[in-house]
Amino acid sequence: MKASSYGRKVLQVVMMTALAVFVFGAAVQAADWKPTKPINFVVPYAPGGGSDVYARAIENVIKTAKLSSDRFLIENKAGGGGAIATTSVAQSPGNDHMLLTFISGQVSGPLTMGKGVATYRDLTIIANLAKDEQFIVVKADSPIKTIQDLVAAAKKQPGTVTIAGTATGQEDQMCNRLFERAADIKVRYVPFKSGGECITALLGGHVSAIWANPSEYIPQYEAKMVRPIAVANDKRVALLNTIPTFMESGYKFQFDFFRAIAAPPKISPQAVAYYGKLMKSVSDSKAWKDNYLDKYMLSPLFLSGKDAVKFVAENEKIFADILKDLGLVK
User: Fold this and answer.
1) For residues 145 and 93, what is the distance between their CA atoms, to the nearest angstrom?
2) I want to staple 303 with a disulfide (CB 3.0 to 4.6 A). Which of 128, 135, 200, 249 is the partner?
């Protein structure tokens, strides 16, 4: 009995040692893994829009702050409200050298498009880095000076006020519906492929106003070509603190627009860990705060792993409710 007991103890020690060696080896492998070729950084929208600015800001921070020596090849693959690029990445399983900018619209879009379009479940969510702000913006010389002016115009002549936004069934249209409900009005929503196209339409006098993130209109704002008149946040944006929120203007709603990073499905755990750590370094850097968050007036919001996936899943439920109200989802 004593010999048998001794043998079992020896076997347990051997197994524990083997397990420790395996875990240590896996940890070393994860720590040592890094890209062996340039990373294809896919942006599902056209150049000049918020996602394009976001991707280029990440690339620039990594380079200037010397967070890694990785090379990023930014590829703008617009179309289908982000669905074409998102689905393309989802169809590249196991590609450890591919990343995707991932925003709220890539969660809401598939809800309206049905089968065949990739959802967040078909991707690897790496991390969320920021929360963007949704503004209504008008031309500098517009007779609409306040959000109350826009509401008054919409009530006087229903359907004549036009507000542009990026895509159908995504952030801008969802915000627009929340605004219509809160103000008890009806406006005509005009979808474009990108924030850059929305700005062009506004400056050309083709629409009354646009939904836009600061990154999409700040250059024109600084040139005194456009004016934001309200923000869909629970508080004013620090660097635009003269612009009221919809809530304080009497329209009870707000909207959270997130900016995350995803990758193809079934990439290696080592790659997931590597990119998660890299994005955390980006989020923690002074360059990110100065050159992206402050410059384009976003709020910091870093989530990774299961927390990021949970956050996306919760937003999907919120979006589904709005889209049902729009008649875009049954």
Assistant:
1) 50
2) 128
Torsion angles phi and psi, residue 198, rounded to 5: -65, -45
3-state helix, strand, coil in the chain (%, to 5): 50, 20, 30
The percent of residues in the chain predicted with pLDDT above 70, rounded, is: 91
pLDDT for the residue 256: 84
Give the pLDDT confidence of 3-33 residue by residue, as tens digits: 445 455 544 544 444 444 444 444 444 458 8
**Antiparallel, parallel or unpaired: β 162-166 and 72-76:** unpaired
Domain ranges of the chain: 1-32, 39-125+257-310, 135-240
Asked if residues 261 and 102 have their Cβ atoms less than 8 Å apart, the reply is yes
Using CA atoms of 160, 163, 166, 169 in order, give the dihedral in degrees to the nearest 10.
-60
Structure tokens at 182: 């809160």
The alpha carbon torsion through 184, 188, 192, 195 (nearest 10 deg) reads -40
Tell me which fold the domain 135-240 belongs to: D-Maltodextrin-Binding Protein; domain 2 (3.40.190)
Cβ burial, residue 16 (10 Å; 0-12/13-18/19+): exposed
- Quick one: DSSP state of residue 245? B
Neighbouring-strand partners of residue 139: 226
Q: How far is CA 293 from the centre of its chain?
A: 13
Look up residue 147 and give its amino acid. I
Q: Say yes or no: domain 39-125+257-310 is CATH 3.30.70.2970.
A: no
